[in-house]
Amino acid sequence: MAKQVPKELTIHDQTRIDPWYWLNQREDPQVIEYLEAENDWTDAQMAHTEALQDELFEEIKGRIKQDDSTVPARWKGHVYYTRYADGQEYPIFCRRAVQADAESHAESQTSSYSDAQVLFDVNEYAADHSYYRMRRPLISPNEQLAAFATDDFGRRLYTIRVRNLETGETYADEITGVSGNMVWAEDNQTLFYTRKHPTTLRTYQIWRHRLGTDTDSDALVYEETDDTFNCWLMKSRSERYIMIQSEHTLRTEYRFLDASNPEGEFTVFLPREGEHEYHVDHNDGRWLIRTNDQAANFRLMSTPDTDIERQTWTDVIPHRDDVLLTGFEIFADHLIVLERENGLPRIFIRPNDGSDGHYLDFGEPTYTAYLGTNAEPTTDVLRFEYQSLTTPESVFSYDMNTREKTLLKQDEILGGFSSANYISERRWAPARDGRKVPVSLVYHRDTDPKAGNPLLEYAYGSYGSSSDPYFSASRLSLLDRGFVYAIAHVRGGQEMGRWWYEEGKLLNKKNTFNDFIDVGQFLVDEGYTSPDQLYCYGGSAGGLLIGAVVNMAPDLYDGAIAAVPFVDVITTMLDESIPLTTSEFDEWGNPLQREYYDYMLSYSPYDQVSAQDYPNILVTTGLHDSQVQYWEPAKWVARLRATKTGDSQLLLKTDMESGHGGSSGRYKRYEDVAFKWAFLINLANDGAQTEAMRR
User: What is the overall mean pLDDT for the chain?
Assistant: First the structure.
């Protein structure tokens, strides 16, 4: 049990005593000793499941095609793709020259080539590192150079280098301490990149680097001085402009620069104001603007690039009360509009000639659909991706003129998988305030859904991020053992529109937790499960949800998994030196204001731990996590261990080498999932040290 060193934290004439505040000293040997002791305890408590963990790992690994490739995507004179080799942890980035007589997109439909050029074999770069991540390389406009960003620590601080793809030479240029977000100018010599604040890790500066020059001479072209904003780089669809997006939870601002004039000055598209969120892109002589100005669910507007003043904007897609406009993609002859209605994503094809548009039809009750890589705006062929709880990720090409749809690739799931063996449902659970919460469910066809099965309930519910139903090969190991899996589309996401998000943030945040509990109770009442077989899972902000739920409704769940959970809400949001704090006041509230302090304190999982019986809980974190600091889950476990009653399991597993995203290698990620599933299956079997119930 962690030692207690009481620290007084006083604000608003109220003092909180934090006995485990000392755990925030990452370099303190006693902190490392405590984390390692908790790891040893976890290993000991899970030792009897080692055979099950091995079985699950082999199952998960055995379903994944080990020598797989993505569907190549054409850009200019090459098709680009990523492949994995059997037995290797990391991706290999490749390309192949397009043949002069090739059809425009025929080359993009073959996923392996004998004469491909290997751009980067990340396995070679990662060989001497316990953690390694390389972001997708950024190819120069002339396709001769690649800028690549690597992180060998897990804090999401990258180093940028440049490789000549014709000679294989890696240049001496080395830019450290950056986000990995970058854009080439059209001269193929100038690289713009974003730098992170050394303490808060906020992306706050845009710099310009010219190849062959010392990085000390790089030019600062923009600094975001408002510490509630981050800034990012991107290129317009037309590739004519380099754009800077300054982003806040409730407002945005764009600047743009002619990509052929890298030493020019950026122009503000529309100054930030109030709670105005807008997003812009450019192609074929016009700007398109997705804006929430007088449009809570957003509308799409247009203006010629010769005159961008606000009064020149005209409606393209007007606001609709029941449809959330989530994005768009510009093609020469078509406009792709991404929407969300009644909890489901939709893709609308709108011809530019004024003829009638149409929606893509997906034919399942619950699914996920989104755009794939569409690098060439001049084509009439759209690439989109689709998956559901029962359908593996599938990549399609779609002729927008003939409406012909072609399946380019569906992830091959080995081990005798058949979609026909699984059933998905969509239900609506009543919330305590009268709202109806959508629920996506999946289970094996041999499982009686009304037989009180073990059930894992998942949700996220923050930042307006919608938890769309996705396919998971690893999840099959639960379904094949009689589990039901449920996604609770709680408020805080945007499944039902912008208002669904507004009702799950700030002073409405408890709606997120209440929705989750009400969905769990609904699943019990409907016979899908029972309290001694109901489990919950969430990560990051979804871990906050789990922490609040086990405080509020401990008797409803037999077990919980909280992955990298944000649980010490007040302390974190009062510390502006911690990454994400200042940019998230409009998500959680600013505790310097008494109203928000009181409300946030009333649900903060760490502060609301009480002397009661809790479910069995597994908590995971990474020592180098830059998004949710490791000490939040560590302190939470320490307080739970010192306070809770009963003999339920409480396990803390700290990855001493990874960050917020977990392990960098794919096999290590399989091991992590196998560990979590073994925890759940063991509980579902009442802790019996026997072979798992395999269908």
Answer: 93
Residue 691 scores a pLDDT above 50: no
Q: Which of 345, 294, 348, 344 is nearest to 321 (CA)?
A: 294
- Grouping H, G, I as helix, E, B as strand and the rest as coil, residue 523 is helix
Report d(CA 695, CA 690) in Å as an integer.
15
Whether the pLDDT of residue 242 is over 70: the answer is yes
Cα angle value 106/108/114 (rounded, 5°) = 100
Per-residue three-class SS string for 571-602: HHHHCCCCCCCHHHHHHHCCCCCHHHHHHHHH
Of 649, 423, 461, the closest CA to residue 557 belongs to 649
What's the longest Cα–Cα distance across the chain?
76
Q: Which of 496, 361, 526 is nearest to 427 (CA)?
A: 526
Helix-then-strand count for the chain, H and E: 12, 38
The closest alpha carbon to 422, from 344, 460, 477, belongs to: 477
* Helix, strand, or coil (residue 695): coil
- Name the band, by pLDDT with cuts 50, 70 and 90, for residue 156: confident
**250 three-class SS:** coil
Q: What is the DSSP string of 50-84?
A: HHHHHHHHHHHHHHB-SS-BPPPEEETTEEEEEE-
Res. 550: pLDDT tops 70? yes
Q: What is the pLDDT of residues 170-219, one digit of tens each?
A: 999 999 999 999 999 999 999 999 999 988 888 999 999 999 999 999 99
Residue with tokens 């020019």: 264
Euclidean distance between CA atoms 523 and 67, whole angstroms: 40
The overall pTM is greater than 0.85: yes
The CATH superfamily assigned to 34-61+418-684 is Alpha/Beta hydrolase fold, catalytic domain (3.40.50.1820)
Picking from 585, 657, 539, 506, the residue whose alpha carbon sits closest to that of residue 249 is 585
Q: In this predicted model, which residue has the larger pLDDT, 95 or 365? A: 95
pLDDT tens digits, one per residue of 634-663: 999 999 999 999 999 999 999 987 554 445
- Residue 629 has which token pair? 């600091």
Residue in 692, 541, 690 with CA at minimum distance from that of residue 627: 541
Q: Please give the Cα distance from 244 to 204 (Å, whole number).
A: 11
Distance CA 392, CA 28 (A): 45
Q: Is 33 exposed, middle or buried (0-12, 13-18, 19+ CB in 10 A)?
A: exposed
Separation CA 201–CA 441 (nearest Å): 38
The string of DSSP letters for 207-244 reads: EEEETTS-GGG-EEEEE---TT-EEEEEE-TTSSEEEE
Please give the single-letter amino acid code of residue 625: D
Q: Where are the domains of the chain?
A: 34-61+418-684
Strands (E), 236-293: 241-247, 252-258, 267-268, 278-283, 286-291
584, 588, 592, 596 alpha-carbon torsion, rounded to 10°: 160
What CA–CA distance (Å, rounded) separates 57 from 168? 37
Tell me the catalytic residues.
Answer: 540, 625, 660
